[in-house]
């Protein structure tokens, strides 16, 4: 209950945020048109940051809202908000002429951090397929995309590879029993560990025996009476307590003499045989002076003894207090020393952590996990509310049909029959009932059909047209034709004028620069208008609904009743149309019989056909896989090793930092800085929003280009794992056994399966092999060109915006491929950057963090500075090979040094070096050829450099 109230309050806050963003956008539309790109970049980036925050709030509301009608409104707002956010990002990319945009200025204005504007994993990931399709997919035994034991491209050693694998071994007659494969390496390590432990125990025993023989007085235990000196103790005994040590229990202060009990003075008690006797009074004798003196002397001696005893007792208590104070002082001294050392160590740790030497590797995730579990439990209830809502709709429609259906049917019939009577009374004719595709009997009820007076006017005009001479008819036809030609000429002139204006505008923009007008459609898009209309309609419809009272998230039945009433009304109109159409024919036949006219049945009207762009009938392509069932398609693809599974990877496994200096270098220093690895991760996550159930823009295909070891395969597996996509392997090796004549059928089969099992990813490792300029001799038997020949026509071109299918290719030698066909097949081509200093530090931290015994204060700054430029695969492989189990066992007596990691790169049999600048420049040059924005930015940078050189030359000439 409390959670439902919190979600309702958060939704109210989100609507206020949406209203604030729309007001800001309206204020931005009042800005004057400008040519200054920096002003436009500042305004658009500010708005982009606001939309990112808005979309995150809307996504959380959509994730936690159970009320179905309100969730539909939130979904519409979320789709429009995401579309608007991507439009603004595209506008920033056009301004900066780069796929990677930087909004540091807007972050400073709004007091945000870079993580606040990054693309996050949507709540609807991974997407859910229908249960029957998921069951068919789970029943298949799919091979792995990366074979276990093979060197992955990213060079990371997964922990699963060291675990024993289960394989099916045939036993008996057709019985497959899973057995555990022996891990020989693990057994050898365990045997070596046992041998080392046994030798160490034997060595310790020999040392102990020698010590007892040579130094008995030091190592043999002392007697108890010598060790325990002046330690007061007392033994006690509890009944039923187990004796920990076999000792003699003796109490030394026990009084063995029985004490006599005075039972005489006890009230209400008389011992047996007791006789009370009368006490005789004796004569009183007063003491003399000698006795009094002796008595006084005895009392003085007793007082002196008592005073002496009390003084000795006070002295003993003082000595005891002194001893206790000394003990307490010593305890406090050591305790303060311990606390000071502990505080100093904590200060040193906090200072090192603040300076970035290492971070805290023990995050407290308990609260975050608890919140995630609560949200997941609430999210899991959404299908239950959806089923209840559908059941409520069906029940309400049945109730309306049962209660109101007969009366509605009778009312519609009476209205149409009255329309018949009106036409007969005024025109002695019966008009045709409109066809259902034209509106049907609904037009009659609304009064939107032809009136009897209009019908009589048309009939009169037809009679007058029959009396016209052929010359008059020809003259009118020529006039109509001339008017039509003039109208078409005006349209052509207007089209040519708009085309000329657009051409002049483009020429003016090339010469003077583009003018940005915030009132043009490129800024006021359909997504912005949809947000305004949806928010206005929501506030109008929900104005009288108190959402805080509906904590059970029940549907609003009044709206369901109105919708179903309109739907029932339409269905009854269709029934009335069929009934009264035949009745109208009977009336028309009777009228023709009375008027002695020939009855002509009306010609049935056909709905207009859907035409193509040029007015021709659209020809649907022939699908050769239409007769195949889903199960047969999956079986065939599994036999061809196309359907595969991938490792559980996420985008967090792609370790890399952002380029924090890119904003200043690009916008203030007029430079072209390379993006960081964090920007690549963020841009890829933003591309995947359209792979979920919501409508969001996404590319049809993307290509990841970079040297080996830069994480291309890791990113491909992360895309599949994050979106829950089915992986189709279309690499050249997989397509090699397929005949060239069957390649078209095979790709159509793959595309149909991808649409059935969507979201799907079509992966092509080494995509440059499908577009070879010259096929190498070893690969000619595979005929790799047969894949590239059909890839665009049968895969990329057939993909629709609503398809949750993505084509992903990777390449480490793109320059060996034909540029044109490769560029045509991929919408987005990303060049993976080289690791900079910040990314290298994070890579070393990740590589060493997996080994708990590695010291956390290792000098990673110097190590990262020296190894900047090495690929992620090289760094991870270095940590795996250097920190083997034997080296980790030696950390106690031989701490890890940075030089050991460097020796792996330089002191081996074959030294390893990072990719050379000349080699990486080949990737950069090729990327500038195929990427439109990169090509334009390179041109702008050349113009700026030329202008700077001219200005420097002029300044040098002026000084001379």
Structural features, described:
- By secondary structure, this protein is mainly alpha-helical.
- The chain has a domain at 406-512 and 558-595.
- Helices cover 57% and strands 4% of the residues.
- The strands form two sheets. The protein has a six-stranded mixed β-sheet, sandwiched between helices.
- It starts with a helix and ends with a helix.
- Residues 698-836 form the AAA+ ATPase domain.
In which range does the helix fraction lie? Answer: 55-70%
Shape: extended
Low-confidence stretches: 155-178, 224-231, 245-270
Tally of extended strands? 8
Distance between the termini: 83 Å
What's the gyration radius in Å? 46 Å
Going across the major beta sheet, what is the strand order? 3-5-6-7-4-8
Rounded mean pLDDT score: 81
Structural class: mainly alpha
The proportion of residues in beta strands is under 5%
């Amino acid at each position: 209950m409390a959670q439902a109230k919190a979600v309702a309050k958060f939704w109210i806050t989100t609507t206020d945020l949406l209203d604030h963003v729309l007001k800001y956008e309206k204020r931005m539309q009042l800005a004057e048109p400008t040519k200054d790109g920096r002003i436009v970049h500042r305004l658009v980036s500010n708005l982009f940051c606001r939309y990112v925050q808005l979309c995150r709030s809307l996504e959380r509301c959509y994730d936690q809202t159970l009320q179905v009608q309100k969730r539909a409104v939130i979904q519409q707002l979320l789709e429009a908000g995401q579309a608007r956010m991507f439009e603004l990002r595209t506008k920033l990319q056009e301004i900066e002429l780069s796929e990677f945009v930087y909004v540091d200025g807007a972050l400073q204005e709004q007091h945000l951090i870079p993580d606040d504007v990054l693309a996050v994993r949507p709540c609807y990931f991974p997407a859910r397929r229908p249960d029957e399709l998921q069951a068919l997919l789970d029943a298949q035994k799919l091979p792995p995309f990366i074979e276990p034991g093979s060197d992955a491209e990213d060079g990371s050693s997964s922990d699963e590879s060291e675990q024993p694998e289960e394989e099916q071994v045939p036993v008996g007659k057709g019985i497959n029993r899973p057995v555990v494969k022996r891990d020989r390496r693990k057994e050898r390590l365990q045997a070596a560990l046992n041998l080392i432990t046994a030798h160490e125990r034997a060595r310790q025993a020999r040392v102990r025996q020698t010590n007892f023989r040579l130094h008995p007085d030091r190592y043999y235990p002392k007697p108890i009476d010598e060790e325990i000196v002046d330690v007061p103790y007392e033994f006690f005994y509890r009944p039923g307590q187990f004796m920990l040590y076999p000792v003699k229990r003796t109490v030394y202060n026990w009084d063995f003499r029985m004490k006599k009990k005075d039972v005489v003075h006890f009230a209400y008690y008389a011992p047996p045989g007791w006789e009370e006797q009368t006490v005789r009074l004796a004569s009183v004798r007063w003491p003399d002076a000698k006795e009094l003196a002796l008595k006084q002397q005895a009392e003085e001696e007793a007082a002196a003894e008592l005073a002496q005893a009390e003084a000795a007792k006070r002295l003993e208590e003082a000595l005891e207090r002194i001893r206790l104070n000394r003990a307490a002082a010593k305890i406090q001294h050591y305790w303060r020393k311990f606390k000071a050392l502990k505080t100093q160590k904590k200060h040193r740790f906090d200072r090192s952590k603040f300076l970035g030497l290492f971070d805290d590797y023990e995050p407290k995730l308990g609260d975050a996990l608890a919140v995630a579990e609560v949200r997941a439990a609430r999210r899991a209830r959404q299908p239950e509310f959806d089923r209840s809502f559908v059941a409520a709709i069906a029940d309400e429609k049945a109730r309306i049909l049962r209660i109101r259906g007969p009366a509605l049917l009778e009312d519609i019939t009476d209205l149409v029959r009255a329309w018949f009577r009106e036409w007969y009374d005024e025109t002695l004719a019966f008009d045709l009932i409109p066809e259902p595709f034209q509106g049907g009997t609904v037009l009659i009820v609304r009064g939107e059909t032809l009136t009897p007076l209009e019908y009589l006017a048309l009939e009169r005009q037809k009679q007058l047209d029959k009396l016209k001479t052929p010359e008059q008819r020809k003259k009118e036809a020529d006039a109509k034709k001339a008017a039509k030609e003039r109208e078409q000429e005006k349209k052509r002139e207007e089209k040519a004028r708009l085309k000329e204006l657009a051409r002049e505008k483009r020429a003016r923009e090339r010469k003077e620069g583009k003018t940005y007008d915030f009132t043009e459609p490129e800024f006021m898009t359909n997504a912005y208008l949809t947000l305004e209309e949806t928010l206005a309609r929501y506030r109008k419809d929900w104005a009288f609904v108190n959402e805080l009272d509906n904590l059970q998230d029940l549907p609003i039945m009044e709206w369901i009743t109105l919708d179903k009433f309109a739907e029932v009304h339409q269905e009854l109109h269709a029934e009335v149309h069929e009934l009264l159409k035949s009745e109208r024919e009977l009336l028309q036949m009777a009228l023709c019989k009375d008027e002695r006219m020939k009855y002509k049945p009306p010609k049935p009207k056909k709905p207009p056909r859907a035409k193509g762009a040029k007015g021709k009938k659209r020809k649907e392509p022939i699908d050769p896989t239409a007769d195949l069932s889903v199960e047969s398609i999956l079986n065939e693809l599994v036999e061809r090793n196309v359907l595969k599974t991938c490792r559980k990877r996420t985008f967090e496994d792609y370790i890399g930092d952002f380029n924090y200096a890119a904003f200043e270098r690009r916008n203030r220093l007029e430079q072209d800085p390379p993006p960081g690895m964090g920007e690549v991760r963020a841009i890829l996550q933003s591309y995947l929003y359209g792979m979920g159930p919501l409508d969001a823009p996404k590319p049809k295909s993307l290509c990841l280009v970079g040297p080996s070891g830069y994480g291309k395969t890791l990113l491909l597996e992360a895309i599949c794992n994050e979106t829950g996509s089915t992986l189709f392997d279309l690499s050249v090796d997989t397509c090699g056994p397929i005949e060239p004549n069957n390649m078209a059928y095979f790709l159509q089969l793959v595309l149909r399966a991808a649409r059935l099992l969507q979201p799907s990813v079509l992966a092509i490792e080494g995509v440059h092999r499908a577009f070879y300029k010259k096929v190498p001799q070893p690969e000619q038997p595979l005929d790799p060109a047969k894949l590239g020949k059909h890839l665009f026509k049968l895969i990329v071109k057939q993909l629709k915006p609503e398809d949750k299918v993505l084509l992903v290719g990777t390449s480490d030698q793109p320059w060996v491929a034909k540029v044109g066909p490769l560029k045509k097949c991929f919408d987005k081509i990303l060049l993976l950057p080289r690791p900079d200093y910040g990314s290298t530090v994070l890579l070393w931290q990740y590589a060493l963090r997996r080994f708990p015994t590695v010291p956390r204060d290792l000098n990673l700054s110097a190590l990262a500075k020296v190894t900047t430029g090495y690929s992620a695969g090289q760094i991870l492989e270095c940590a795996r090979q250097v920190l083997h189990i034997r080296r980790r066992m030696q950390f106690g007596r031989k701490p890890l040094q940075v030089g050991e990691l460097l020796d792996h790169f330089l002191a081996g049999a074959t030294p390893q070096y990072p990719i050379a600048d000349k080699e990486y420049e080949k990737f950069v040059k090729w990327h500038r050829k195929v990427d439109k924005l990169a090509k334009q930015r390179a041109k702008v940078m050349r113009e700026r450099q030329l202008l700077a050189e001219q200005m420097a030359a002029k300044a040098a000439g002026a000084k001379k």
